[in-house]
Amino acid sequence: MTRKRFLTLLGSTPLLDAATTTAASHWEPRLFSFAYENVLGTSLDLRFLAESPAAAENAERAALSVIDRLNRTLSAFRPDSEFRRWLQSSGPRPISPDFFHILDQFDDWRERTFGALNPAAETINRVWRQAAAERRLPSRRELDCAVALASQPHWSLDRTACTATRLSVAPLALHSFAKSYIVDRAADAALASGARAAVVNIGGDLVVRGPHTESIAIAHPLSDEENGPRLATIQASNLAVATSGNYRRGVDIAGLHHSHIVDPRTGQPAGQIISATVAAPSAIDAGALATAFSILSPSESAWLASEKPGVEYLLVTRLGAHVSSPGWNRLALAMAPAAQSTPARSAAGTWDPSMELLVQFELARISDQRYRRPFVAVWVEDKDRFPVRTIALWYDKPRWLPDLRAWSRADRMRSMAEGTDITTSVSSATRSPGKYSVKWDGKDHQGKYVKAGVYTVFVEAAREHGTYQILRQEMEFTGKPRQVELTANVEIASASLDYRKAAR
Question: Is residue 393 part of a domain?
């Protein structure tokens, strides 16, 4: 398992490290952040309220230990996991309490949702992926066979003996339940190790535990870049938050996107709800409901939510309507403003406000269990090499910022990155590990449109005990769309620039 440890700061970020301003003899409880890539096939962010760096690192070790242990138990990808070994078994097989709990919870939620949640939904997903690879839609016969296989009972449980018997040959996946269970247990372990409070975010599903209130931004399903607009921001305390959506995974056939979330009862991809966010006391409840609400009608979702105390939700329909529970507004801080029907006007000779620059990049995977994520800076300079905007800046500690040689070469660049910290936790559909996108709206750090013309876009990466790499690409921003693939290097596996019409 490759992990990359980092503190992620996007857009404009303060460069003052709180740890360096507090006397070593007196530590006030404060938040410490850690983050990794390629944990459970996605990203991991940890935030602990602790009295010292040592206490925070102890909580980090405890949380990671639980994640490692449960991954060895529940992973569908590790051939040596308990789950994978059980899939190959026959007859009653003793299983661990953690595994038993997941299977038991799946049985409960399959019944509660009238079959909308089904561990054999993977059977149907495989049909859609195969059809997409052949550039066609699945046949009705293929889907009917997959639905029939998925509708069978898949296991039986013996509570007294703590055994599970495999009953079907259908491909099974426990992804959402396993991830939610791991989030909860990792937070508990961090608190037991001495952290005052814990925030654990695995791929957009997160839990907040202890005397701490976390601001959680909800990713917008139509603009999910790291610095894109947010659907909403909520305040969470002793709460789990999960989001399901069709905007990061799925298949494309004949120019149409089909969600990876399928209705096991029909074989069809979910399409009416494009984003479902659920806040609940339990991470398993939040994760199960977020997936179910992506499949069920809003009225069915409202009834199901009413069966569980403390559940609030926000749904976004295919047509863009927002549907929320009666108590959602008690959590929400601010909703995203409605999209403008027409682009904003700008002065003659300046950036065309109907255009935007999308920067996409993937961090290289390095075979080192404790591999730290490189520091990354993305910024734009004009033809005179004058920096006009820092789009993204990710780093661990300010004293290492000079390792980003090009970005930190001038005090001007540093001052442009001070002022606003947008390191808010984000609940979103599960991301792929190491893959990120940010966009530039053509405005400088003061919020004014730049002049139309030629600029250079930089993507810089520096890794502790590793390599230094920089990508640069000259681009003309005069209203004519252009796409450029950048040459990969040791730290950045791929990168691209897309100057395009802005998404509205």
Answer: yes
Q: Which of 154, 180, 206 is nearest to 98 (CA)?
A: 180
Token code pair at residue 88: 């190959």
Average pLDDT, the chain: 84
- Which residues fall within 8 angstroms of residue 489, CB to CB, at 6 or more apart? 461, 467, 469, 471
Residue 360 pLDDT exceeds 90: yes
Residue type, 36: Y
| pLDDT, position 203 | 84
- What's 492's domain CATH number? 2.60.40
Q: Within a domain: residue 445?
A: yes
pLDDT band at 447 (very low <50, low <70, confident <90, very high): confident
Split into its structural domains, the chain has a count of: 1
Is the confidence at residue 6, as pLDDT, over 70? no
Any idea which residue has 């990354």 for tokens? 376
Distance of alpha carbon 64 from alpha carbon 361, whole angstroms: 26
Angle, CA 379 vertex, CA 378 and CA 382 arms, to 5°: 155
Q: For residue 462, with 0-12 CB atoms within 10 Å meaning exposed, 13-18 middle and 19 or more buried, which class applies?
A: buried
- The β-bridge relationship of strands 214-219 and 425-427 is parallel
First to last CA, the chain: 38
199 bridge partner residues: 47, 208
Q: Establish if 421 belongs to a structural domain.
A: yes
Distance between CA atoms of 49 and 32, rounded to whole angstroms?
Answer: 6
- Calpha distance 2→71 (Å, rounded): 13
Q: Which domain holds residue 474?
A: 355-501
pLDDT tens by residue, 111-162: 999 999 999 999 999 999 999 999 999 999 999 999 999 999 999 999 999 9
Q: What is the pLDDT of residues 467-481, one digit of tens each?
A: 888 999 999 999 999
Helices marked H in 283-354 — which ranges?
283-293, 298-306, 328-331
Q: Would residue 166 count as lying in a domain?
A: no
